[in-house]
Design brief:
The protein is of the alpha/beta class. The chain has two domains: about 10-175, 3-Layer(aba) Sandwich (Rossmann fold), CATH 3.40.50.970; about 190-315, Rossmann fold (3-Layer(aba) Sandwich), CATH 3.40.50.920. Helices cover about 40% and strands about 20% of the residues. The chain is globular.
C-alpha cells in the first residue's frame, strides 16, 4: 500500500482551498447554506462564497463571539451556517458561545477553523491553535474533524452539511501534500488504513498523516513494518479500528500537530486504557507555545515530523 504514494514529488494544495471549493458547491446545491466571517475572509477564502452569494454572507468583523451567536440564531431559522476564521479565534475566543449556544443547544452550526496547528508559521504563538482539538473534544454533541489534505477537507465540508449537528473542522494555510483519493469512501468516525504493518501502528491526524506515511516508508527500508491509520475524526473516534490495530502490533504511536494534552494522544489513550491496554507513545507539541518560523522549521524544532516518529518507534522496539 505504501508504494502508491508519491514521496518524491507529491501534489501540493492548500486544504483551506478544499474548504472554499466545497463551500461554493454547497452554495449552489442548497440555498439554506450561509457563511459567516470574522474579518479574515480573504485568508480563509470565504470571499469566494461571498462573491458568488453576497446575500448569504455575513461579515461580523473581529467579533468571534458575535459570529458564533449569530450562527446559532441562523440555525434556529433553518439555515445551515458555516462560521469560519483562524483556528485560534474559532475555538478559543468564543468558547462560551460555542458551549452554550451551539453544543448545549445542539444547533446545526459548522465551525470551520483555518490556519490551524503549527502551519500558520510566521504569525507566531498567538495565532497557532495547538489547543483547539482539546477544547472542542470535551463538548457534548460536538463532532471534531481533522482532515489531512485538500481532498479530505473538501469531502468533510461537503458531508457535514448533510448532518443536522454541530461540527468543528480544522485545516491549514500552507500547501501540503494532497495524497488521499478524492473518490474514496469518507465516513465520519471511521478511520482510514493507509498502510498495513505488523510491528507498530502509527495513528495520525491532520498534518502528521503525511509525516507518518514518510516514516513508515523509511522504517520499511530498515525492515520495520508500520501500519498507518488516519484518524480524521477525533470525536467520535473509531474505537474498533484502534483496538484492532493494537491487538495486531502491540505498539501504538500517535502523531499530531497539537499539544500532547487533550488531542489525539489523549483520545487514543482513553480508548486503549479501557479496552485494550497497550504500549504507546506520542509525537506532539510538548506542552509549550510555538513561535514564528516557516512550517517546516517549526515542525523540526517542536519534533512533530517523520524523523521524530522514526525515533520513537525505534526507541520502543529496542525494549
Amino acid at each position: 500500500m505504501i508504494e502508491k504514494y508519491n514521496f518524491e514529488n507529491p501534489e501540493l494544495k492548500e486544504s483551506r482551498q478544499g474548504f472554499a471549493d466545497a463551500l461554493l458547491e454547497l452554495g449552489k446545491e442548497n440555498p439554506n447554506v450561509v457563511v459567516l466571517g470574522g474579518d479574515v475572509s480573504g485568508s480563509v477564502k470565504t470571499n469566494i462564497f461571498r462573491d458568488a452569494y453576497p446575500d448569504r454572507f455575513f461579515s461580523v468583523g473581529i467579533a468571534e463571539q458575535d459570529m458564533i451567536g449569530t450562527a446559532a440564531g441562523l440555525a434556529v431559522t433553518g439555515k445551515i451556517p458555516f462560521a469560519s476564521t483562524y483556528g485560534e479565534f474559532a475555538a478559543g475566543r468564543p468558547f462560551d458561545q460555542i458551549r452554550q449556544s451551539v453544543a448545549y443547544s445542539e444547533m446545526n452550526v459548522k465551525i470551520c477553523a483555518s490556519h490551524c496547528g503549527i502551519s500558520v508559521g510566521p504569525d507566531g504563538a498567538t495565532h497557532q491553535s495547538l489547543e483547539d482539538v482539546a477544547l472542542m473534544r470535551i463538548l457534548p454533541h460536538m463532532t471534531v474533524v481533522t482532515p489531512c489534505d485538500y481532498n479530505q477537507t473538501y469531502k468533510a465540508v461537503k458531508k457535514c452539511a448533510e448532518i443536522n449537528a454541530p461540527f468543528y473542522i480544522r485545516f491549514y494555510r500552507d500547501k501540503t501534500p494532497n495524497f488521499t483519493d478524492i473518490n474514496a469512501d469518507f465516513e465520519f468516525g471511521k478511520a482510514d488504513i493507509l498502510a498495513e504493518g505488523k510491528d507498530v501502528t502509527l495513528i495520525a491526524s491532520g498534518l502528521l498523516v503525511w509525516e507518518a506515511l514518510k516514516a513508515a516508508k523509511k522504517l520499511g527500508e530498515e525492515g520495520i513494518s508500520a501500519k498507518v491509520m488516519n484518524i480524521h475524526t477525533i470525536k467520535p473516534i473509531d474505537k474498533e479500528a484502534i483496538v484492532k490495530a493494537a491487538e495486531e502490533t502491540n505498539l501504538v504511536i500517535t502523531c499530531e500537530d497539537h499539544q500532547k494534552h487533550g488531542g489525539l494522544y489523549g483520545a487514543v489513550a482513553e480508548v486503549l486504557s479501557q479496552m485494550r491496554p497497550t504500549q504507546m507513545d506520542y509525537v506532539a507539541v510538548e506542552d509549550t507555545f510555538g513561535e514564528s518560523g516557516t512550517m517546516e522549521e517549526l515542525m523540526r524544532k517542536y519534533k512533530i515530523n517523520d524523523e521524530e516518529i522514526i525515533r520513537k518507534v525505534k526507541k520502543h522496539l529496542k525494549k
